[in-house]
Fold:
Amino acid sequence: MPVPSPSGFVRRWPAAVEVLEQAAAWAALQRSGNSDLLAVGVFGSYGRGTASVGSDLDLLLILQRCDDPIWERLRRWDTSSLPLACDLLVYSLEEWRSLPQWNPKLAKALLNDTRWLGEMPAAMALPELCRFQGDGVVDG
Structure:
């Protein structure tokens, strides 16, 4: 969503650096109130550094454990304080680590495009023996 300019008369799209700063602050706030939240990352155009006017903010949240169905996981995360519309992917650590086996294309895109907001625990790393080749995953 465009944000009001200081004069209040003209709307402008927030700069990428501004969006990422606000996303980092949001991530820190979420981590402080949710002990099971291991990491927050930005992927898509903001993760790649190609965001422009009209880009949304894609967030990746990794939880220690999550038993909620996919469609219920989003309710917990209030993104209304962020300056843009957001899409969220919420995975448990187990789902994150197994992602290359059940969705190799998404795993490859997330590995290439995600900019982590804060530290990413070593336990979150995808298996080192896993490398991508073509459209699939090949153990190396």
In short: The longest helix spans residues 16-33.
